C-alpha cells in the first residue's frame, strides 16, 4: 500500500504536494476516482479518492477518517551528530521505522559536526514513516547546545556513557510507559563536565551493553531498548 | 586503541597484512618497539611490539596472549539480501557491532538479489569487529538457497513473518543461552510455500513488533532482541 503525506489535512488542505502528486499521477498513473491513502503525520489516516489527477497538484476528497492515538510511552533521543552525515541520515530512517517520538541534535564539547540539514533529515523521516506504515511523524528539531538539551524535562532521563564505574544497563533502569529522554554523545564521548551537568540535572548514567558502539549504533540501540521494554 | 587483525597468529604468522601494515607504519607512524594490539578474530587478543616497521609487512613479537571465551549464546542470522547492497553492508556493520556469531545470505522465491560480494562484506565485518573492540569475527557465508538454510540446526529456530495470524513476539519466544537461527525474508517477504517448509523444519513463526520494518531493519531488530534477552 502506498501511503501519502499531507500534514495540513486538519486545516483543510486536500491535495498532495508536487513531489507526491508526480509520484501518484506519473509513476502510479492514478486517475480520478482511484483510492488514495493519506496520513497527516499527526495520527490521522485518511481513505480518500483522487478528484484531479494533476501531476503537479493532485487533489482528493476524504471518504473515511481514522485516528491513531499516541503510544503509551514517549521516546526523546538527543544525539551529537557524527562527522559523517550519512550515519545520521541512516539513524533517522531506522529510529523512525522502529519507533521514536522526538529527535534532538546537540553540540557537545567533543562534537566534530555543529550543523545539520534539518529539511533533508525531515524528508528521510517522512519517507520512513510512510514506508513503515505509521501515521505519526516524530518531532525533529534543529541543532541545539548541550546545555539547552540537558535542561529538558522527562520522567526518565538517561545519559549513555561508557566508563569503568558504569554498572547500570538502560534495559534495567527504564520503566515502561514513561517519557524518556536519552542523551548520546559524540565520537569521543561526553566530557566529564558535561556528564556532571547531566547528573546535576537528574540524568542517570547508563550503559547499553558490553560492546563499544559507534554513536549512531548507540542511539539506535537505546531506541530499540526503550521500544523493547514497552513491547 | 587501534586494534589490528591477523587471523593466522595461532598458525605462527607474526606480521600484519599490507593494508594494516601501511596503516600502522604510514598513518600511525609506528616504530620498532612500539606496542601493537592484535586480535586473531578467533577469541585471541595479543599485546605485541613492532619488530620491523615495514609499511608493506609490519612484523611483531607477542608479549602477552589473552583469550576471550565464546558468548553463552549463539546468534545465526539468515537474510535474503536486499536489491540495494548498501543496506546489507550497513546490516553487517551494525550486527557485528551489536553482536552476532554467524550470518547467512539466502536466495528466496521473492529475492531481487541472488549474489553478494562476500569479500567486501568480510572486510566490513573485520572493520566493525576491530572498531567495536571485539576479538571474534562472525562466520560470514556465501549465498545459499533457502532450502539449504531451512534444513540447518539450532536450539531455537525462528522465521520472521508478518501476517494477521502471527501472535508470537520473538522477544517472548526466545529463551536465553541458546543457539538461535533466525530467518529474515526478502522485500516482498517469504512465499507461503517457504513458510510451510520452515514450519515443517521446526521453525516458529514470530513477529518483531508492531511496525512494518524493512528487511535490514528487521534483521537488526532480531539481532538486538536476541542480544537483549541475554543481557
Brief overview, please?
The structure is a homodimer of 231-residue chains. The first copy, chain A, is of the alpha/beta class and 231 residues long.
Task: Describe this protein's structure.
Two copies of one chain form a homodimer. The first copy, chain A, has seven helices and ten strands. Chain A has 231 residues and is α/β, with parallel strands linked by helices. Chain A folds into two domains: 3-67, Ribosomal Protein L25, Chain P, CATH 2.40.240; 74-229, Alpha/beta knot (3-Layer(aba) Sandwich), CATH 3.40.1280. In chain A, the strands form two sheets. The first copy, chain A, has a six-stranded parallel beta sheet, with helices on both faces. Chains A and B meet through helix 2 and helix 7 of A and helix 2 and helix 7 of B.
* Domain module tally of chain A: 2
Strand count of chain A:
10
Put simply, the count of helices of chain A is: 7
Low-confidence stretches of chain A: none
Query: How many angstroms does the end-to-end distance of chain A come to?
Result: 25 Å
Question: Strands of the biggest beta sheet of chain A: in what spatial order?
Answer: 7-6-5-9-8-10
Helical content band of chain A:
25-40%
Oligomer state of the chains in this structure: homodimer
Derived from helix and strand composition plus strand pairing, the structural class of chain A reads alpha/beta
Q: Tell me, briefly, the overall form of chain A.
A: elongated
Which two protein chains have the largest interface (Cβ within 8 Å of the partner's Cβ), and how many residues from each? Answer: A-B, 25 and 25 residues
- The secondary-structure element order of chain A is EHEEEEHEHEHEHEHEH
Q: What does the average pLDDT of chain A come to?
A: 95
Largest sheet of chain A: 6 strands, parallel
- Which CATH class of the largest domain in chain A applies here? Alpha Beta
User: Which fold name fills CATH's third level, the topology of the largest domain in chain A?
Assistant: Alpha/beta knot
- CATH architecture descriptor name of the largest domain in chain A: 3-Layer(aba) Sandwich
Q: If you compute it from the alpha carbons, what radius of gyration of chain A comes out, rounded to the nearest whole angstrom?
A: 20 Å
CATH superfamily of the largest domain in chain A: SPOUT methyltransferase, trefoil knot domain
Portion of residues in beta strands of chain A equals 25-35%
Amino acid at each position: 500500500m502506498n501511503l501519502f503525506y499531507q500534514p495540513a489535512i486538519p486545516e483543510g488542505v486536500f491535495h498532495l504536494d508536487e513531489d507526491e502528486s508526480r509520484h501518484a499521477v506519473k509513476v502510479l498513473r492514478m486517475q480520478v476516482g482511484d483510492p488514495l491513502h493519506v496520513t497527516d503525520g499527526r495520527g490521522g489516516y485518511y481513505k480518500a479518492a483522487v478528484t484531479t489527477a494533476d501531476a503537479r497538484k493532485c487533489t482528493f476528497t476524504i471518504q473515511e477518517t481514522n485516528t491513531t492515538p499516541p503510544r503509551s510511552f514517549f521516546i526523546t533521543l538527543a544525539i551529537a551528530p557524527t562527522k559523517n552525515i550519512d550515519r545520521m541520515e541512516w539513524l533517522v530512517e531506522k529510529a523512525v521505522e522502529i519507533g521514536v517520538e522526538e529527535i534532538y541534535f546537540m553540540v557537545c564539547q567533543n562534537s566534530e559536526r555543529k550543523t545539520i540539514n534539518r529539511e533533508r533529515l525531515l524528508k528521510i523521516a517522512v519517507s520512513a514513516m510512510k514506508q513503515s506504515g505509521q501515521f505519526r511523524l516524530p518531532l525533529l528539531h534543529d541543532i541545539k547546545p548541550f546545555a539547552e538539551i540537558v535542561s529538558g524535562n522527562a520522567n526518565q532521563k538517561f545519559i549513555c556513557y561508557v566508563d569503568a564505574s558504569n554498572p547500570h544497563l538502560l534495559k534495567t533502569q527504564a520503566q515502561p510507559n514513561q517519557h524518556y529522554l536519552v542523551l548520546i554523545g559524540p565520537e569521543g564521548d561526553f566530557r566529564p563536565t558535561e556528564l556532571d551537568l547531566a547528573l546535576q540535572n537528574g540524568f542517570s548514567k547508563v550503559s547499553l551493553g558490553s560492546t563499544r558502539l559507534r554513536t549512531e549504533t548507540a542511539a539506535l540501540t537505546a531506541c530499540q531498548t526503550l521500544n523493547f521494554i514497552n513491547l
